[in-house]
Amino acid sequence: MMPEELARKAEVLVEALPYIKRFYGKTMVLKYGGGAMEAGGLKEAFAQDVALLWYVGIRPVVVHGGGPQIGVLLERLGITSNFIQGMRVTNPETMEVVEMVLSKLNKDLVCLINRQGAKAVGLSGKDAWLIKAKKMTLKGIDLGLVGEVEEVNVELIEALQQKGFVPVIAPIGVSEEGETYNINADTVAGAVASALKAEKLLLLTDVPGVYGPNKELIPTLSARDAEALIADGIIEGGMIPKVKCCIDALRMGVKKAHILDGRLPHSLLLEVFTDKGIGTEIVP
Amino acid sequence: MMPEELARKAEVLVEALPYIKRFYGKTMVLKYGGGAMEAGGLKEAFAQDVALLWYVGIRPVVVHGGGPQIGVLLERLGITSNFIQGMRVTNPETMEVVEMVLSKLNKDLVCLINRQGAKAVGLSGKDAWLIKAKKMTLKGIDLGLVGEVEEVNVELIEALQQKGFVPVIAPIGVSEEGETYNINADTVAGAVASALKAEKLLLLTDVPGVYGPNKELIPTLSARDAEALIADGIIEGGMIPKVKCCIDALRMGVKKAHILDGRLPHSLLLEVFTDKGIGTEIVP
Amino acid sequence: MMPEELARKAEVLVEALPYIKRFYGKTMVLKYGGGAMEAGGLKEAFAQDVALLWYVGIRPVVVHGGGPQIGVLLERLGITSNFIQGMRVTNPETMEVVEMVLSKLNKDLVCLINRQGAKAVGLSGKDAWLIKAKKMTLKGIDLGLVGEVEEVNVELIEALQQKGFVPVIAPIGVSEEGETYNINADTVAGAVASALKAEKLLLLTDVPGVYGPNKELIPTLSARDAEALIADGIIEGGMIPKVKCCIDALRMGVKKAHILDGRLPHSLLLEVFTDKGIGTEIVP
Amino acid sequence: MMPEELARKAEVLVEALPYIKRFYGKTMVLKYGGGAMEAGGLKEAFAQDVALLWYVGIRPVVVHGGGPQIGVLLERLGITSNFIQGMRVTNPETMEVVEMVLSKLNKDLVCLINRQGAKAVGLSGKDAWLIKAKKMTLKGIDLGLVGEVEEVNVELIEALQQKGFVPVIAPIGVSEEGETYNINADTVAGAVASALKAEKLLLLTDVPGVYGPNKELIPTLSARDAEALIADGIIEGGMIPKVKCCIDALRMGVKKAHILDGRLPHSLLLEVFTDKGIGTEIVP
Amino acid sequence: MMPEELARKAEVLVEALPYIKRFYGKTMVLKYGGGAMEAGGLKEAFAQDVALLWYVGIRPVVVHGGGPQIGVLLERLGITSNFIQGMRVTNPETMEVVEMVLSKLNKDLVCLINRQGAKAVGLSGKDAWLIKAKKMTLKGIDLGLVGEVEEVNVELIEALQQKGFVPVIAPIGVSEEGETYNINADTVAGAVASALKAEKLLLLTDVPGVYGPNKELIPTLSARDAEALIADGIIEGGMIPKVKCCIDALRMGVKKAHILDGRLPHSLLLEVFTDKGIGTEIVP
Amino acid sequence: MMPEELARKAEVLVEALPYIKRFYGKTMVLKYGGGAMEAGGLKEAFAQDVALLWYVGIRPVVVHGGGPQIGVLLERLGITSNFIQGMRVTNPETMEVVEMVLSKLNKDLVCLINRQGAKAVGLSGKDAWLIKAKKMTLKGIDLGLVGEVEEVNVELIEALQQKGFVPVIAPIGVSEEGETYNINADTVAGAVASALKAEKLLLLTDVPGVYGPNKELIPTLSARDAEALIADGIIEGGMIPKVKCCIDALRMGVKKAHILDGRLPHSLLLEVFTDKGIGTEIVP
Predict the structure, then answer these.
(1) Is the pLDDT of residue C194 over 90?
(2) Are A179 and A153 in contact (CB under 8 A)?
(3) Chain D 83-122, CB below 8 Å of chain C: which residues?
(4) Predicted ipTM?
(5) Do E20 and D55 touch (CB under 8 A)?
(6) Helix (H) or strand (E) holding C4
(7) Looking at the predicted structure, is the pLDDT value of residue D77 above 70?
(8) Is the dihedral of CA B210, B214, B220, B226 positive or negative?
(9) Fold of the CATH domain B26-283
(10) What local confidence, expressed as pLDDT, does residue A226 receive?
(11) Residue from B160, B166, B182 whose CB has the most chain A CBs within 10 Å, to mutate
(12) Average pLDDT, stretch C152-172?
């Protein structure tokens, strides 16, 4: 190797040093979904990143979404869905398909992470009653089995973390009466991060981050400014619930929240281990 | 209550006493499948029994089978299967359906046990690489993704048991290369019991137990006698692999194996906590 | 076995389930004395019950009384006693006899419990200064070495419980100056239950429970109602101190107190593990 | 204080130094009996010594004998005993008296040690089945309930030692069938020391130690030489079983055994913490 | 040995008993310096005392001073120093010599203690940033690298104590920026004792203790009285900072402080283990 | 940042991944000396590397040499030394200077590492008798206080590692009799690595590695080949003892030994965390 190349390698390793130190033993909750789950090679890069975090002593917890496979299977089974405000009205038959597809994706992701050398364990909110859920209440609208998080029971997550396992969670909740609910994965990630008092909540999305009034990417944003940008209509559409989810988590004790572009390979590593980071960070 | 009724109650409790003592802290692996998974009320009774074992300090591990739901979904999706020697030839498309259905059943069973007050956690062989599998080798026959157990990695099971959780395992394995395999649930139960050096392996079936030459139920059978009954053609058909699975487990250090009628409510309790037991026990 | 018989057995076991669950790891203090210590077979049934509680994960602590053997030995030695308000005036010579007889009974009871498979350890209030006592003060009356509990030092009990032993305690206390005192066993049981914040205090007596104004057995009684019944003269005689002892324990954090008929075999089991219980329970 | 006095004090403390170091955390079994239990002030000095050993990190275990109180009570009750070879023929009535007196002495000794600030716990061989015993077999002679040690179950002793308690043991054993036996206290001390692989077995007796052929006190004696002295008739009478008990303990792994004069105040301290020691030490 | 000699030995051991008990597991910080470091045999006696404290379960921490060796080496190197108010103005060149000599003395002392059988570990304030220091501020005077303690980081001391090591500390501190400072050893001992909430702070000096108005040695002094004696000019000169250091430590939670004559052999032992103690004790 | 730059950074981090995984929790012993201790900036880079190893869960142990400062101080003090076979004949006066300089360097290095955020603790072989040494024996030659390692007592190193501290060791040993010895730092590093069964022994030198017959740098060398190269005179001069030290360590259970160029900044990081490594590795 050329000396300059060695010097550059050493530089990257040295840059990563203070971050490895700062985050040692800390919990980071990663929401993984959308485009990052689909494009070739991105899944492997994500699994590699999760394993790297784990190797250097960080405790990652993954919450994943569902993706297009749900729609594909529903269609093959001839089940049609209505959508209200972007959410699928979920009857019991649909719920069963959603749960089957999520369970399959969950174990696939577990496998990918394990093949990178970490020890992942796939969970749904049903395991040890991890996510107590209830029917989502929307004025005058019945979305069926779409739920919201009532309580996150961290005992199982913490037991697995203590033994060095990486929990990978499918966004399914269950009510006191045993009813299964489909819950938005961002919301589950936020609730899990809050319950664990996580160091970071990282939402991997399909955009580079939050944009400001002049369409410029905003690197850092306070919770208060983020709310102002929503009120001013600058943050809009699908980004609103994501930003709100971050703000809620910060209020519950999460240290920092990030909205990253999951389509950029290794965006997780670059965010956590470089000085500039990427995407938008939201701070309390 | 009448005094005699009280006396009878006390008698049952006193009879259970030495068994509760003998099995305290011991691991029992339960294979749950077939008719016991279908008839109304039997699932709840099974979940209750698992919880009772757990309450009195026994460490149950459940391995479940698939049941008719797999066939139903395959049919709805228009996927046809060939069967060779009673085993479904499993192509990747079929495997995906099998995994989805098993994952769904797994979490349903977890939920039922949790509602009885225990803390169950659903796993497949993919979690923390619990079941390393390889393609099943049958002379001249290719069954596709039907696998056999290569190694059971008990670290995750023991971590969960130490923290008081009940592992519930779907019979799916994964190869070093990440290929998913469908494995016979009795075999998985036997391999898990062997790896854990379990106190008991209990196979819940659709028959009262093993029958002898005169069609009488045999309460106790040595491994050697069981082999003789197979050689003599007295144990036959679907009972052969079950009995062989028990014999193998005994050779690997499991203390006792049982073949019970899962259709009898609370057969598990009656076997474990009464003097006579029920079904057939096979001893080393 | 007949199916109905099996069903009935299963029913009893299933009925016991929620109680085994509820009381797992909890401490129960049992006062054992009077008729239950004398009749043939009752001692063995009591020892069996203590062992069963222990097997299912409950932590029993036994406090026993003295019984007629004290009188027998005093008589043989030609020592006469005066009684004031039903309490024996205890001079040093009498105290020595009381202590010798109690120590002997203590070890006999330990032996009986050990033979049922539990690991009992006999203690008096002198061991590790378990019961600090002082002279009982009664206006104008000197009862000699009759004492009352000043402090229960739970360190030894808890150390033994942690290692899985069953403490069996003789009702003897010792003052700071080393003076030995004879203390009422109900009082000791109540004080020990209070110091351990026990789940239950169970007093085994020679009557079926507390009777109401119409001579009917009262199954449940609040502490307040119990005080009213004493004030109204409905609870009377020897039952008064027993009920007061229960009320005091409830005030100190014991969850529930019971007055049972110790002459009924296995009354302990029936109280703890059946829905209806027996005798009278007093609740805060 | 005069400088010379200070220097002398410092010298004693410095002399004790290597012994405190050498014996830190080690178990010493002390047989306490005979004259040392009777003379005024000796009991207190013994209790002080036990507490000092405990304070400096040694783990004492005390085994005590019975003494003349047994005879006194037997006489008062009009029970006569035959003696064969110096051992009391023990019928059930006598055994009861022996057990009562020993239990009383046991708790008195516990009290004395506790008052010196240690935490003693009185045990008999019945507690947690500490001493399994059987009938002593002597050719053609029936001594009744005189027993010998079959097995010492150290679990309870070690549990108490770990928690910092000092076990004080009365020499009573119990058979598998629950029969109570009276055992020689030297023998019990030797068996307990063997089972604990004790650092030292110290027998406090009524003589200064073992005497040689010229009536000189022997400070150190090998097991082999001790046997020769017995064979030659130089060690004789009541000293024979004591020396044999020491030899047996050395064979079972005890490091050193001592025969001391218990009538000399603080003989225990002087033996353990001074260069010359006192009495006779027997080494493997 | 003569009986009277034995009795006297036993007496000293018995006198030490309550002190060994009282101080078990407690931390004592010893300032060692001045004449006690120089005279022949005194170092060995001090090392023996430290080891004895350690053997009986006390946790000693030693802070030592520099002594005349610093001046000797400075002179050999031709470095001259100015003194202001008895403190050496320390330039970087001088500081280097001070650090070298202290490090050498530190390891010599460690060696002496180890040879008595304890396990000593030599530290300076640089190890694990044990002593954060800053430049000493004196109005209008610049003493160069003479520092004062800003913070004592006890993590390393406690880790070593838990594992049974004896920390031996050289009085060197280091600032946030990495600057090395020379600090008065009495001050370091006081600060370490305060940070550890030590049971005792013992300053070994070259005088018998604190003297009162009539030149009589004062055995006990309250912090308040000590301040009065300073105000009245009775405590004067070099004794003032020592007494102030004791008073400060008492304010920070140290239980008792002592000023002893380090030139008296084994003064440490005599202070800690005898009823009268020696020197002057200062109490809160 | 440019995407390519991000990609390159991600690549370096991903390359480091398997090494971080492989070495997690493993001990690496680093010999630090020569040119790497002198040139500007190299000390800081070395300290940074030690801290990075520590941050990612590796357990570094540093052994350092002396360097030219020893000669400088000897000269200033007018002490002259003879050299035999490249080793300084060390009389007591010289030994004192060596120890003072090494102690000073030790604490300086500790300080540098601490300023990078790790928690280093400086030790010499005297602390807790870490390095038992004896006089080096060379036929017919007396080198004075030059010693060789007799035994490495790892208790202190392991205690510090368990608590997360980085031991930094000066190459000084001490004999049973308390004599101080100066030992070659490579030898100490090898002996420490052997005693700890280290994963790696890394010797930082002033050359790029071991050269072969054609003056080419050899990346990998077996112990056997290394011995052949010495026999053939290809490895020569000062490299011989370094290579022998590596071979010895491999024989004692060290997994791999490395000879690196300490003058290349961050050579440690590049060796440990990149695929090609740098310098020469010697394997068993």
Answers:
(1) yes
(2) no
(3) 96, 99-101, 103-104, 106-107, 110-112, 114-115, 119-122
(4) 0.93
(5) yes
(6) helix C3-23
(7) yes
(8) negative
(9) Carbamate kinase (3.40.1160)
(10) 96
(11) B160
(12) 97
Distance CA D216, CA B280 (A): 76
Tell me the average pLDDT of chain E: 92
Flag whether pLDDT at D1 surpasses 60: no
Q: Which one, of A122, A169, F17, lies nearest residue B128 by Cα? A: A122
Residues in chain F with CB shorter than 8 Å from the CB of E112 are 178
Across the interface, do A16 and F20 touch by the CB < 8 Å criterion? no
Give the phi and the psi of residue B95 in degrees, each rounded to 5.
-55, -40
A110, A127, A165: residue with CB nearest B122: A127
Confidence of residue E2 (pLDDT cuts 50, 70, 90): low
Could you report the per-residue pLDDT of D191-220, keeping only the tens digit for each? Answer: 999 999 999 999 999 999 999 999 999 999
Residues in A 210-229 with any Cβ partner in F closer than 8 A: none
Task: Count the neighbouring beta carbons within 10 Å of the beta carbon of residue D137.
Answer: 9
Cβ–Cβ below 8 Å for F269 and A13:
yes
Query: Cβ separation of F52 and A266 shorter than 8 Å?
Result: no
Closest by Cα among D173, D154, D195 to C107 = D173
A55 touches chain F (CB under 8 A): yes
Residue of A nearest to F44 (CA): A14
CB B202 within 8 A of CB B260: yes
Q: What is the pLDDT of residues E173-184, one digit of tens each?
A: 999 999 999 999
Q: Which one of E131, E160, E181 makes the best mutation probe of the F interface by having the most chain F beta carbons within 10 Å?
A: E160
Residues near C118 by beta carbon (within 8 Å), at least 6 away in sequence: C50, C51, C54, C55, C166
F273 to chain A, any CB pair closer than 8 A? The answer is yes
State the count of interchain CB pairs (< 8 A) between E and F.
97
Residues 6+ apart with CB under 8 A from A92: A144, A145
Please list every residue in chain E whose beta carbon sits closer than 8 Å to the beta carbon of residue F100.
100-101, 103-104
The alpha-carbon radius of gyration of chain A (Å, integer) is 19
DSSP secondary structure of chain E: --HHHHHHHHHHHHHHHHHHHHHTT-EEEEEE-GGGGTSTTHHHHHHHHHHHHHHTT-EEEEEE---THHHHHHHHTT----EETTEE-B-HHHHHHHHHHHHHHHHHHHHHHHHTT--EEEEETTGGG-EEEEE--BTTB--BSBEEEEEE-THHHHHHHHTT-EEEEESEEE-TT--EEE--HHHHHHHHHHHTT-SEEEEEESSSS-B-TTSPBPSEEEHHHHHHHHHTTSS-TTHHHHHHHHHHHHHTT-SEEEEEETTSTTHHHHHHHSSS-SSEEEE-
Please state whether at least 3 CB pairs lie below 8 Å between chains B and C: yes
Give the pair of three-digit tokens for residue A32.
């993984």
Identity (one letter) of the amino acid at B107? K
Band (C1; pLDDT cuts 50, 70, 90): low
Of E106, E107, E128, nearest to F114 by CB-CB distance is E128
The predicted structure's pLDDT at residue F2:
60
In this predicted model, what pLDDT tens digit does every residue of A51-68 receive, in sequence order?
989 988 899 999 999 878
Cβ neighbours of residue B174 closer than 8 Å, sequence gap 6 or more:
A111, B125, B126, B129, B131, B132, B133, B180, B181
pLDDT score of F1? 52
Nearest Cα residue in chain D from E53 = D17
Q: Which residue of D has its CA nearest to C95?
A: D104
What span, in angstroms and rounded, lies between the C-alpha atoms of E16 and D101?
A: 35
Q: How far is CA D275 from the centre of its chain?
A: 22
Q: For chain B, what are the domain ranges?
A: 26-283
Between A146-155, C27-36, F219-228, F240-249, the lowest mean confidence (pLDDT) is in C27-36
Q: Are B109 and B32 in contact (CB under 8 A)?
A: yes
Which residue's entry shows tokens 């009389």? Answer: F91
